[in-house]
Amino acid sequence: MDVPRSSLDFITICCLRLIWDEIYDNWVEVAQDVGLTVTEEQILFVLWLAKASTVTEVASTLQRDKGTISKSIFSLGRNGLVVRQTLDDRRFSEFTLTEKGEQLILELIDRHIEGQGMAFAQGFLTLDEEERTAFARTTLKLVRYVYGDSYISAIQRMKNFPSDTKALIAKLMKEPSNMVDE
């Protein structure tokens, strides 16, 4: 594809890559400061948003392999941050945060909101409500395009998702997706 140098699309992709580097570097810094890996921190956020999840559900949400998620959840359990509850079918377990895990999530949220050296978080919080909503809508629309309706529906079912986010997703799901076949 021949893309002119002045293309807004090309510049947008370059900017997204720069923003991603900033976001990921912050995830690493914040996670390491509390003794976690980035994957472990992300698992804690998924468990917090879902209230409870299986390894398979967490792996699907984070788009990671189940082996990596299982090892990380084992480590989080060993550190007293998550607890395993065996379901009716003993082959499956559900994981929830312990009180210590809940407290750590609140600390992590504070660290991310403070932007602990993260220009993106600080810049994002300077956007007005309408701009943040438009950004969230665009992001969810792109995630829907890449991962499909079933992925968006799964994250919408997370129990701790803010109601305005659920409403935004519900509105988005009513629109045609223009997705590539899943």
Strand order of the largest sheet: 1-2
Oligomer: single chain
Distance between the termini: 23 Å
Strand content: 5-15%
How many structural domains does the protein architecture include? 2
Radius of gyration: 18 Å
CATH architecture term of the largest domain: Orthogonal Bundle
Number of strands: 2
User: Mean of residue pLDDT?
Assistant: 86
**Elements, N to C (H/E):** HHHHEEHHHHH
Give the number of helices. Answer: 9
Low-confidence residue ranges: none
CATH topology of the largest domain: Arc Repressor Mutant, subunit A
Share of helix, binned: 55-70%
Q: In one word, what is the shape?
A: globular
Secondary-structure-based class equals mainly alpha
Topology of helices and strands:
Layout: H1 8-33, H2 38-50, H3 55-62, H4 66-78, E1 82-86, E2 93-97, H5 99-114, H6 119-126, H7 129-147, H8 149-156, H9 163-173
Antiparallel strand pairs: 1-2
Helix pairs in contact: 2-5, 3-4, 7-8, 7-9, 8-9
